[in-house]
Amino acid sequence: xxxxxxxxxxxxxxxxxxxxxxxxxxxxxxxxxxxxxxxxxxxxxxxxxxxxxxxxxxxxxxxxxxxxxxxxxxxxxxxxxxxxxxxxxxxxxxxxxxxxxxxxxxxxxxxxxxxxxxxxxxxxxxxxxxxxxxxxxxxxxxxxxxxxxxxxxxxxxxxxxxxxxxxxxxxxxxxxxxxxxxxxxxxxxxxxxxxxxxxxxxxxxxxxxxxxxxxxxxxxxxxxxxxxxxxxxxxxxxxxxxxxxxxxxxxxxxxxxxxxxxxxxxxxxxxxxxxxxxxxxxxxxxxxxxxxxxxxxxxxxxxxxxxxxxxxxxxxxxxxxxxxxxxxxxxxxxxxxxxxxxxxxxxxxxxxxxxxxxxxxxxxxxxxxxxxxxxxxxxxxxxx
Length: 384
Hints:
mainly alpha; Growth Hormone, Chain: A; 14 helices
């Protein structure tokens, strides 16, 4: 539930931008601030949440963060002032940082690596599905209930998450001597192993998210895809990622870590070849492009879900910081990708395709380095 809330929080109210702009008489820049300030608050807060989750009780931080998110949702729901809406969105960004990062650390605390792969894969799948489905759900809610309806849904969702956290997340009662300072990330940056894992995870993930960010313009504006069909393409792609991520643990258990890992890499390589043909032939069929992205969506989940649990265990007592560090790197590379693709976008798939080819190739090269240097990573999992 927390993963789905984290996935939906950022984008669910984007379809209601025109209504918000009209009600408060805003410029496009001022309207966009409701999104960008939320994102900035999340990014900044996540770095400190990572440190605090290693220093204090993770359960308390999750619950305090959800309370902050609930307060922000109330501000957004009942506001009749644009600036109060901005305050609410900033509070939502601050509040969602804790749950979105600490859930992975909580799983890493409780379960061995072989169990973590399955559970973290499930969380990744739910988050991806919620992120892709949020704009579609938000558009229908806005149509029938107005823009405030989206914040009603977020408020109810966060209250459920708080209630479930009260009963099902247990205290770890740790008291580690860690400075609440960004210098606490220096040991992580110095770890070559963690940097390799983080780079691989980030470069595998960002092609999908950049495509999701640009696809509304490509499909709706330049390919003239209807809203209903666009929802089908977006939903199908999200479903492939969600199902693939959720079932990656089962595949690894069936065929072994090594075979599953290489299956994922092979699918990514096939995806690169497909993208090359799409660019060369100037394909404008959204179905073919979506099918190509579906291959990547199913392929990347295996290396991501294999590497992520191991990355949290690289350094002792640093699971929260490792989760925050990986998230920060992924968001930074994704932001750069969106900026580069947006700046070079010419109404065709080519700029998106070039970015995918470059980032996916980098991910494959890093994966080969990891395979050669981290022999124990692909060792058979032990049944527990």
